[in-house]
Amino acid sequence: MGSYQRTSGKRKLDEVKAHWTPDNREMFIDLCLEQISQGNKPGTHLTREGWKNILDSFRTMTGQNYSRIQLKNHWDMTKKHWKVWHKLISTEHMKWNPVTRTFRASREEWDEYILANPDAAQFRCKELLFADKLDSLFSGSAEHCNHNNYATETERPTRARKRQHVSINTVLPVEEAVGGKPHSNAERCYDAVESRSITAVQSPPSKLSYSIEECIKCLDSTEDVEEGSEVYLFALDIFLKKEYREIFLNLKKSSTRVAWLQRLQSCCPPLPLD
């Protein structure tokens, strides 16, 4: 008898939830680029053989028993983020500088752009990870997918051994993780949010301890946030501060939690703890 599946169409009960670390994401991108270079993406989608090769290699290299659907969902999510990023840097008045890899748009220009393109809020303080590789992956040009773009067979075991599993106690500030610089008004932004949290949270329920564990369980149950995504990792950072945990758990609707995370993320990256 086949494994039991929920009637809602969600993941099978025995299916491992995908956790996308930066290393695993880059490894997945490299495997996709390799398949493109081998002609397994004749159009806009990978062939069945291409997906099989990626699935087998990813399982061997990471030990993660992800399904093809999970890898395809990650492909779709990654492509969505790339499209948002590509549109952002192609918008003239946002003044993207590819040399310094920074935007020179004013605060007002950012506010106006995000109002019309809310998904771009995640890139206000940091750039898209592996943007160059994603250009090759989704631009439709196979000629860029050479051995300089992805790890070779001999490099992969080393990379797999060096995979870093980031724990709650070792989460880095976003600007440190991607090599960016903190926003100029970051400290003022955080002071303002923390001061608002004092009045925003009224008599927290006694059944909640507002622990990091409670917040992560709530975050994992939020379907609109993919585990390992930029918003997910940002949430782990801010969960290190109790004030943010209290606000997050007191927000009743999942959509409100996601909107709050994205708004805070667009304001500034998290500051290092003292």
UniProtKB/TrEMBL annotation:
It comes from Buddleja alternifolia. PANTHER family: MYB_SANT-LIKE DNA-BINDING DOMAIN PROTEIN, PTHR47584. It holds the Pfam family Myb_DNA-bind_3. It comes from the Eukaryota. Residues 19-113 form the Myb/SANT-like domain. This is Myb/SANT-like domain-containing protein.
